[in-house]
Every structure is written in C-alpha cells, then in structure tokens.
Predict the structure of 3-dehydroshikimate dehydratase.
Amino acid sequence: MSPTLPQNAIATVSLRGTLEEKLKAAAVAGFAGVEIFENDLIGSALAPYEVRAMLDDLGLACMLYQPFRDFEGMPGDLRRRAFDRAKAKFDLMDELGADRILICSSCHPAALGERERIVDDFRELGDIAQQRGIILGYEALAWGRHVNDHRDAWAIVEAVDHPHVGIILDSFHSLSRNIPNDSIRAITGDKIAFVQLADAPLLDMDLLYWSRHFRNLPGQGGLDVEGFVAEILRTGYDGPLSLEIFNDRFRSNAARLVAEDGCRSLDYVRDAAKRLIDQPTDMPAPQPVLSAEFVEFTADGRDAARLGSNFATLGFTLVGEHRHKKVTRWRQGGVNLVINAEPKGFASAYRAAQGTAICAIGVRVKDKAAVLARAAALGIKAYSPEGRPGRLAMPALRGVGGSLVYLIDADEVEGLWAREFHATDGDAGVVGADARSIDHLAAVVHNDEFLSWQLYWRALFGLEARAAQDVIDPSGLVHSQALQSADGAFRVTINATDARETLSARFLDHGIGGGYQHVALITDDIFATAQALRDEGAAMLDIPVNYHADLAARFDLDDAMIARMADLGILYDEDSDGAGFWQLYSRAFDKLFFFEFVQRANGYAGYGAPNAGVRLAAQNRFRPEATPTATL
Ligand SMILES: O=C(O)c1ccc(O)c(O)c1
Ligand SMILES: [Mg+2]
C-alpha cells in the first residue's frame, strides 16, 4: 500500500476486471475514491446498493458518476427525453451515494449549438439537481459537436451561473488540442466540479481514437499535465485529482499494477505542479542522477571467471577485490563493473532467478537521504535485507526487473571504493579501448511494465523522456523509450515487445523478470577503440556490407571513413544539424547481455534509432536456433 493522500481518485474505466475487482484494486492501492464509469456499472452483476455497500466496506468514496452524454442543445422531444434520462441517473446516483455527475459535451448529430439554449438547459437541469443535492459538471470533449474547448465550456458555466453547475477539466481534452494551460486562470476555483487527469504519447491522429486507446498516466506521456495541474491549483481548487485512463495496455494489465502506478503518478504530478507555482509540498524534491557509478553483475564459479575475461577483452582491468566478499571491481576510465560471486545475499538470489546477469546499478546523487525519502513518498520500496537496512554499506531501491539501484552520495564515492575494496594489480585489460564513462543502460521489461518503469524514473529522479521509438527486430516490433537527466549525464532506455521471438523477448524468457540487457560506454575516438579491441581479439558484432553501402548514399562521409567503419563494424547516425554518432557492439555474453561503445559529436542527443534494426538483424544471426555452434 502506498502512502495515501486523501485526494487521489481513479475512474473505474482505467482498470481491468469486473467492477468488484476494479474497486478492490483502487482501495488496495490507497485511492480515496473512484469515478464509477457507467459501462462498468451496467455490466456489473452488483445492484447499485451493493456497489455502495462495497465502496463503504473498502473505504472508497464515490466521487463521480460518468459519463452522461448528449444532454445539451437537444431540440423538441429529444430535449424532454434528455431530461428524463438525467432524472433516472439522479435516482441511480442516490442509490450509489454519488453526488456529482459528469455531463460531456454533446456529439449528437441533432444537437444545436446556440449558446442561450445550452445555458437554459443547464440552468433548468441545475435546479432539478439542486433539489436532489447533486452537482452537474460540464466537460468539453475534444471532439464535441459544438463545445470542444474548456474555454467554451467555462463561458457556458459562467453564464449559467448556478450553484449546482460547474466545469470539469480533463487534461487530455485540453492538451490534445493544444489549448494553453494559462487559459485556466480565467476559471474560478470553486466552479471546478472535478478534475480528470491523463497523459498521452504525442501521436498525430484522430482525437477520439487517440483518447480512447492511448491515454496513459501523468508521467508516462508527452503532455504538459504538470502545467495543467499547476494552473488548476492556482485557481484555489482543492478537490480530488482523478485518473481517467482509456488505454489498451491497461485494459489487460493487472489492475493492481495500474492502480499502484496510478497513485504514484498522482502524487508525482501534484508535487511537480506545486513546485511550478511555489506552493509548499510534503515530498522532497527530485534529485537528479549525476551519473551511473557502477554496474553490478552476478555470476559465480566458471561464469565469474569467463565474465572477467570478457571484461578484460573489452578493455576493463581488474583493480580491486572486496575486503570480505567474493566481489571484484573492474575499471576502464570512469566506468566500474563489479562481479558479485557471493553465495548468499541479494546477488545470489538474483542469480538463482535470472542466471548470470546485471543485478544492480549504483548511481551518484547529491543527497541519497532525500532520494530515499522521495522514494518512500512515492511508494517505491527500499531494499532491506532481512529487515536490516542499517547493515547496508549503501542504501538501495528496488528497480527494473527486481534489480537494485544503489544510491551513493557524490562526495563519498572514492571513500566507499577504498573502504570496501583493496587494490589489486590483476589482469590488465586491453589497452586503448579507452571508454570514459557510461553513456546509457538499456533495459528490457515485460510489456505490461513498459509504462511503469518510465513513471518510476521520471517521478523519482525527474528524468526527461524523449520521443518513443518503434524498433524493428527481424521477429517483430520493439517499443523503446529513452529517459535521461536534464544534462544527459544519466540515460536509460526501456524496451518492451509483444512479439515473442524478438531478441528482447528471448532475453525476458531467459529469466523470470526484465533487466538490463546492455551497457553503452562513451569513447572519444571510436576508431581507436575499435582497432584496439580488434588487435586484442575481442568478439565484436559484424555489420553487413549493405549497411555501409547505404550509409555512403545517405550521408556525406568520406569513402575512407566508410571503409574503416565497414571494416571495424562501426555504425553511424547523424541528426538534422549534422551532429554525428558512432556505435560499435560487442558480441553478447552467452547470447544474453552485451556492451556498446559510442561516440557522440557536436551534441548528438539520440541513440542511433535508425541503426537499431540493423544491429538486431546482425545479432539475430547468432540466435541459438540459427547457429547452434556459435559461441559468445
Ligand atoms: O471517450 C469518451 O467518450 C469520454 C467519456 C467521458 C469522459 O470523461 C471522457 O473524457 C471521454
Ligand atoms: Mg474525461
């Protein structure tokens, strides 16, 4: 259960299952109330009074009944029928214990757009609602026939000027149409009957289709929901913030997962909005990740030795051994890899589930105590071995695929290494690979968790999302989302797929959860790096000649450079400003995880997305079925 703020609500349409399952999931996650979505009630075997009893048992308020469609501006007999329908809903709301109803702007082909008529309709229904103790909230659907902008809905509500008629703001409808958030300043806070929130990926498509299939939680898309909420709070509105998410993934995801993420996303967006308008907030501010300090692999016995050799061929040198544990430290420039071969503890448990794998990362932050406090406020669990977190040299949070994120204060880094490890002068790695630091970490997660992990990084550390990419694996589509700190010093990509034979899917099948599949290292001279690795016999990924022939056609690069790239297996991309990006891949260790070397020039900010398909096709040649004799 996440720590509950009293003002979080969720529409039942956002969750999978029967109405009972939806309500239980909302309660367990810590929501204070729900919006009952009409279809969920109609399809339910529970009578309205039973729903009410269940809500009471679960400690949930019924904050809204919705939607009521095609009410305003109806001519003739249709008007009378709209009023009769409304009265029937008021009776139902009595049974449910709901005191407000959402009336969405009409899409009816017969609806009239004349302002006075619409105002009269709301005034008349407002009188009836008042006698029943009900509040009407008017929401402008982005595709409404005459009213599709909250500014018009507000003009109507203002003109109606009735104590039981207010406006409902829904971030999707406003932001999908690029209506400026500051237009909310014209609205009086006590006239806002309810607030619905949804984010969405920035897609250029029909508004209704976009809304009904692609909405997601604040912090999972590209809309300025923070700015939207900030303007609402500025009006003085202090009612609930409610999630109304129509999303194809959420319809099949576990309701528990979506509800838990939902609470987290509301807490996150409320905090972010308050910061925008300098209102006090209970949550510590997000601490940016300054950099990834280390990547920890779990491996034992022969695997640990083979992994160390693999690191050495890629330019890492064994520089330290843990003073008390079977843990070694490998370094190249500012990159630290750790191999944990302990027979007990977290790494060993992770190994039992996932085999030899990346089991943790360590990140440098300015103030780890603040990160831990923010994580707690967001319901993100800290790792506590056998309930004794005090014994940990480094605190850690649960992260992607059950791995850990260790937190290290920037000023304690060197001391920590010196305290925990004694220096060795073991195997020297390849000289001249010259990786300087970690560019990014790439995780593969189950499709159900694709949006969850985005929210995690954005809410906890304030990472920013780049535009999502669809990457073509020979066996299917892979969704990829890059997230990074504002200065680009820490980057992760989250990858997921529905297609069962893709490299990502095969990585997932290997263990029982997601995890990090590759680590990208920055080099300042990728040609020298590639040559040094070649000279030492590192196993690198060959790239087909067709690729480099195409490069020559696409970019204005000199022939000698392209010939060298072809020889060394280097990939290239360029942004629209001509900034270049070079990539070089190692062969995967046991066909599982691999390294990438990259060089960024002139502020290239992407990840070589156009090359991902070529890389996946190249890696696919080594899939177990295709070449059973291939090693590494
Ligand atoms: O897609 C719809 O019809 C619909 C219904 C009710 C809402 O509150 C909404 O935002 C959209
Ligand atoms: Mg809505």
